[in-house]
Amino acid sequence: MTDLHRIVVVEDDPDVAFMLRYSFERGGLSVRTAGSIGEARRVLHEEPWDVVVLDRLLPDGDGIELCAELRMARPYGYIMILTGETAQDEKVQGFALGADDYVTKPFNVDELLARVRAGLRIVELQKALLASNRRLQEISLTDELTQLRNRRAFDRELVVRFEAALRYARPLSVAAIDLDHFKRINDTFGHQTGDAVLQGVASILTASTRVTDFAARTGGEELSVILPETALFEAIHFGEKIRASIAAAPTSGHAVTVSVGVASLPHSKFASPSELLYAADQALYRAKFAGRNRVESEKRHERFARTEALPAARQRTQTVSL
């Protein structure tokens, strides 16, 4: 094991604590000690830990009181009770409160170290599983082609940002961006070229957004950006910056333009995230019919649009862009 594996020994007997620390450190483990429940709480909250060797009879109470607290704080940590109590019901109580192992005094140091190493193997497996789950979650919310977030992630994020904007009376804008004449590129040069163009546009978009913005691929050739703390005028400026940047930089050897529609709170009092997105889509639809390669903003009356009209609006936008 390496020193990344942190062991905390909670033991009020200084001789026992010294012996355990010495033995564990010789085994290549990083060890901290605490002599009371209060000191243990401080130590355990200061830095991550992997295994806690916890004595029960401590000056300020029963160490088992920490079990449930530690289990909630670090679900995959390994908790080992170390005590002179041998009664069966005492052990059952410890396991019920979150302990993973129970060692009675007197103990063999080598056996205890072996048990700690076994606990660390379990911790490592749990960490690997958590990391794998996080990667799978990341993949499920990422568009494979552009490496932007996908529609599922966008819809989820928009709900969160919309509710926060309403709660704290903060501005929030959405920009809907669609590539002009994208079907021509696919039909003339092939889908591989079309994919490369999409990737190039996504790269420009990524470079042009702030850390707090949320960019996603929400359709075949449609990209969307959530712009927190951004009023309508600033959102229009953002859309124009994106439009100009893409028009000025040939993407994969092809001249590409985009049309952009923006909508914003509190410029209009939208009742739901769907209404806000619908207004941005309608603005995009107007940009397409006005000649493409331009930015259009919402109209105030669009806040009264029915949310059921959203899918149809997106379909019309895709049709116009051909």
Task: Provide a count of the helices.
Answer: 11
Mean model confidence by pLDDT: 87
Query: What would you call the shape?
Result: elongated
Helix-strand topology string: EHEHEEEHEHEHHEHHEEHEHEH
Structural class: alpha/beta
- Strand content range: 15-25%
Structure characterization notes:
The chain contains eleven helices and twelve strands. With 322 residues, the protein is α/β, with parallel strands linked by helices. The protein has two domains: 6-140, 3-Layer(aba) Sandwich (Rossmann fold), CATH 3.40.50.2300; 151-320, Alpha-Beta Plaits, CATH 3.30.70. The longest helix is centred in the middle third of the chain and has 32 residues, at 109-140. The chain is elongated and about 85 Å long.
Short description:
By secondary structure, this protein is an alpha/beta fold. The chain folds into two domains: 6-140, Response regulator (Rossmann fold); 151-320, Alpha-Beta Plaits (2-Layer Sandwich).
Strand-helix topology:
Elements: E1 6-10, H1 14-26, E2 30-34, H2 37-46, E3 51-55, E4 57-58, E5 61-62, H3 65-73, E6 78-83, H4 88-96, E7 101-104, H5 109-140, H6 151-168, E8 172-179, H7 182-189, H8 191-208, E9 214-217, E10 222-228, H9 232-248, E11 258-265, H10 273-289, E12 295-297, H11 310-320
Parallel strand pairs: 1-2, 1-3, 3-6, 6-7, 11-12
Antiparallel strand pairs: 4-5, 8-10, 8-11, 9-10
Helix pairs in contact: 7-8, 8-9, 10-11
Search tags:
322 residues; alpha/beta; Rossmann fold; Alpha-Beta Plaits; five-stranded parallel β-sheet; 12 strands
